[in-house]
């Protein structure tokens, strides 16, 4: 009984409880789901905007950052597949680097496709 009072006192919990108790409304036919494993098409211009912060490490001449013995990988001109795979691995945590894992967590799959589209077009 006391738990029910807390549910009804909270607007969020009250709305959830009311939705759970309401009869199911008829639903419209489901829209066609996107085909599985179809790669997203990246937008290089959007990717250019998203890679602004990447320049802090990856844009340094000689690809070395402030850590004396840490070589920063070249990302400009890499294949889009490599870049997409690397960012997804950082996002999943199967490729480890704290900064890159934090960066990748903020990207959607479309962001990753856009970033790969832009970076793969760079020649330097």
Automatic annotation (TrEMBL):
Entry keyword Amino-acid biosynthesis: no
Keywords: Electron transport, Heme, Iron, Metal-binding, Signal, Transport
Transmembrane portions of the chain: none
Domain Cytochrome c: 42-123
Alphabetized SUPFAM superfamilies for the sequence: Cytochrome c
Name this protein carries in UniProt: Cytochrome c
Signal peptide: 1-17
Pfam family for this entry, one: Cytochrom_C
Species annotation: Luteimonas flava
Domain of life: Bacteria
